[in-house]
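Hey, resending since the last one bounced:
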Amino acid sequence: MADYVIAIDQGTTSSRAIIFDKKGSIVSTGQKEHEQIFPKPGWVEHDPLEIWRNVQEVIGIALATADLTRHDIAAVGITNQRETAVVWDRTTGKPVYNAIVWQDTRTQSIVDRLAQDGGVERFKPIVGLPLATYFSGTKIVWILENVEGAREKAEAGDLMFGTTDSWVLWNLTGGTDGGVHATDVTNASRTLFMDLETLEWRDDILETFGVPRSMMPEIRSSSEVYGAAESSSLLRETPIAGILGDQQAATFGQAAFQTGESKNTYGTGNFLIFNTGEEIVHSKNGLLTTVGYKLGDQPTHYALEGSIAVTGSLIQWLRDQLGIISSAPEVEKLATTVEDNGGVYFVPAFSGLYAPYWRPDARGAIVGLTRYANKGHIARAALEAVAFQTRDVIDAVNADAGVDLTELKVDGGMVANDALMQFQADVLGVPVVRPVVAETTALGAAYAAGLAVGFWAGLDDLAANWQEDRRWESSMDDAERDRQLRLWRKAVEKSMDWVDDDVK
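The structure tokens again:
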């Protein structure tokens, strides 16, 4: 009998395969980073072929580490960086261009062009999203308009589009030899093309963007059998049975199944999701309306989301671009060499500002510098920026929901940083709670897959697996919190209105 489920977590900086048991505990992990490609300022790319090679490798590592084979695996779940766009040739299986990553800002001119008729919220009542470089729809347009021969191939029906879940699924199920071209409702809801009510591609919006319908994957639920791994795979004949975009997967892994429940994931960026149940709620405070999950034929669950572009990747920037740390965990040690931020505030608007501001004209800014400031203050300001940005998003959630969040469930790589979690509780004024299994993104994908094949009986089984690991209580007084927030918001204002027509 198969006693385990494997999740493929195709993330922004790495691909992982994690094997879980019935209690939702991690059995083994395989992980491999892929190259971050920066051809020009604001451009971020990945090599889809490298990603697929890494996915195959990490599956092997996870199986070998646990001394398991495909016969031990009941199902495969996939979770992924949601808005990163891959366009490939359906005949050769080769990408026509690198994957354009969700952080990439090159499509701003396309956004501006589309917004001339109706503004940036032109399609928001239908798709839940403003026009922004963040989403995958404008990235497809850029490829069709800038890659030689792409438009002609697309019009002839020879090109396929997918976010990285679709790319992995298609390759895992056979690629050019019968690969399944599909995505789930959560990823489809991040393209700018899916009608939130019907869960179908909108032909009129696709036509407005100039994207042929033939490129688009089939939209399926988040928990069903899409196909089986092909014969050359280490997982051959194992059903692929769950797909959730990474933030929705983390919400599912946190067992936030009910209306009013939420989580905040600290990864490359930060993403807070607030479950609105079966109701589509349109934000008045800069949040996105998105699909939370859909299990087979059951009703769709929706969510409000606050998306922050740069959090964990800011620490990566300190390591790779500035060189003031040699590994990401060192940032906490460096930050604690100083008692406070020394008046330094860091607004990491490398890709503009996402929620709740949506200011593509913003750029990164470090303010409040004096001769007193040192690299410890910069490290501390970087960590604090993660917490301040989260506070901005939670203020928006509270305003939209009409009730204040009473505690914040957290997950992702950065929640291992105790100093950050304490400051997060301080600046929010509410408890911050970390679960025993912090890898909730992969866990959520595993849960979706396991539900589809009967490995878990239902949501009650999953909720019973959730356990609290640690809780941080706020220790900052109200006056100090208000002072810090006032200075942070002044810093945010300084980052805005930076990009002029002649600024790259």
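The mean pLDDT is 94.

Sorry for the duplicate.
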